[in-house]
């Protein structure tokens, strides 16, 4: 399985990098995982609704340019469906079973994802009703994908 994580914004927090790299290393025996980091659109603090839409559209264009037509896209969005770790494992297993070997997870920038990206997504996933920094979501996502592979292989993993 080929998993791509497209993430808007540079990972600035040095303390997150070792954790992400550790899970990427662990995942390498289960799947090919690549993180594609895209620049976020520079914008002032107080934006109008129109300006926010424009920023999300520009970021969305960069995201969509990195998604192949055959990829199964899972957008991370607060309004998405919440899964348990076991349910995510089952979802990834079913995708692999039905020939979906290219999975793309999309983490938007600080304003979220454009309507065009959400329309391209096959489904959306929410980790919580709470808001998390998009940089932290990378670590949380790679850990949960790793956990899913362990669950699907029947290998032990702490609960």
Automatic annotation (TrEMBL):
Instruction: Determine if Cytoplasm is one of this entry's keywords.
Output: yes
Q: Which annotated residues bind S-adenosyl-L-methionine? A: 76, 108, 127-132
Q: What is its main location?
A: cytoplasm
Catalyzed chemical reaction(s): pseudouridine(1915) in 23S rRNA + S-adenosyl-L-methionine = N(3)-methylpseudouridine(1915) in 23S rRNA + S-adenosyl-L-homocysteine + H(+)
Is the keyword Ion transport assigned to this protein?
Answer: no
EC number(s) from the headed UniProt entry: 2.1.1.177
What superkingdom heads the lineage? Bacteria
One GO BP on record is: methylation
| Cell location | Cytoplasm
GO molecular function annotations of the record: methyltransferase activity
Q: Which Pfam families match?
A: SPOUT_MTase
Keywords recorded for this protein, A-Z:
Cytoplasm, Methyltransferase, rRNA processing, S-adenosyl-L-methionine, Transferase
NCBIfam families from the entry? PRK00103.1-3 (NF000985), tRNA_RlmH_YbeA (TIGR00246)
Q: Return the similarity comment.
A: Belongs to the RNA methyltransferase RlmH family.
Q: Which HAMAP family match?
A: 23SrRNA_methyltr_H
Quaternary structure annotation from Swiss-Prot or TrEMBL = Homodimer.
What job does this protein perform? Specifically methylates the pseudouridine at position 1915 (m3Psi1915) in 23S rRNA.
Q: What is this protein called?
A: Ribosomal RNA large subunit methyltransferase H
- Species name: Bacillus carboniphilus
